[in-house]
Design goal:
Strand order of the largest sheet: 1-7-6-5-4-2-3
CATH superfamily of the largest domain: Type I PLP-dependent aspartate aminotransferase-like (Major domain)
Order of helices and strands: HEHEHEEHEEEHHHHHHEHHEH
CATH architecture of the largest domain: 3-Layer(aba) Sandwich
Number of strands: 9
Bound molecules: pyridoxal-5'-phosphate
Structural class: alpha/beta
CATH class of the largest domain: Alpha Beta
Number of domains: 3
Oligomer: single chain
CATH topology of the largest domain: Aspartate Aminotransferase, domain 2
Shape: globular
Amino acid sequence: MKRTATGALARQLADRTGTNPGDWYFVFRTRYGMLQVFSALASQRPDASVVTQLLTCATAVDPIVVAGLKPVYAEISAETLSIDPAALSVNASDAAVVIQHTFGMIDDDAAGRVAAAAQSRSILVCEDSAHCVGRMAMRKDGTPLADVSFHSFGVEKMLPTKFGGAVWVNPAMADRGLHDEIVGRLAALRAPSARLRAAVRTYRVQRGLLNRLPSPVSRVVRPMLTTMGLFAPAIAPIETAGGLAHRAAGMSSRMAREISEHVRRLASTEEQRARVTAAYVTALGGAAELPAGATQGQPLVRFPFLVPVGVDADEVTRRLNSQGIVAGSWYRPVLFPGVGEPAVYGYDPDDAAVPVTDDVVARIVNLPTGVSLERADQIAKAALTAIDSCRSSRT
Ligand SMILES: Cc1ncc(COP(=O)(O)O)c(C=O)c1O
């Protein structure tokens, strides 16, 4: 591999995952890597479906829709917040399945069962590691189990980089034609346009200024700048309407250099987040339901818990936010932050028979993990108080 900025980044990710640098490709945002992969699939299997989950971000499903494929939504497990292999049934119209490591919880066994079900029917196994850049589900022999693995350097992910995504393509993929089509499309990506590169450089400043504007003004200015391609928000309005904001683009050298710097510190970020995650488990274990995947020492991008049945999760989140705690509701509503026309996403809220997903979505709250242990302790205490007071305000 050439000594380029993306080449250096590929070596870093390859070292972390025991893969080959030549199998890594870089994109402006992960969603564009997904678009290339699903477009490659659509060129061979037009009208096919892609099995994914509702507990996700709209930007993870947009690439399926834009590629012309049909998203279908499998039930998740409350322990992994990822597709439940026991509830999964794949059929002849499915061309791919997406195993999402929600919050960074990787369950090799469950992922392996989903992958086995898919691979026995020649269905492409995609892994969504957006929340756990540089980590992958592994087989027992220590090799990655996915055919294609997506990683994000985007907003609110493991690193403070805001932009960029990586795609690993398994060199041992069974379908050689599809492998070559995917690799061809990823390798052909051009660097982002000058306007988009400027939007990347000025993102933080623009966001700071937009956040300080009175909201009636910012409500007008923000979409205007976005439509003109001058501002690149984490989720553009069109990305909740079954579209993507830009044409697929690769990663600029400048982006790759900045990301590389941060990847150097990924291990220490992971250690700190794993410690904070463990502290939340100890503090909240008795008061809230914790997905088993959150209790196993993994470095989570945010810490998820389910409030007790009957407690209003939105109210708990509001109370925490009012104390300056960045608690969140990934992913309530589903296809976060909610889509204009669910039918565009092949989703019928009245028809989706996914009771576990519905229950998780109704009760989930998440807490920041990129904080000190001392701050995590304060946040956990505030969460316990919020749960308690929401419980008693109900009775
Ligand atoms: C689960 C998941 N997959 C994929 C994406 C898309 O990543 P990116 O923002 O790098 O395009 C996101 C973004 O939030 C996500 O949460």
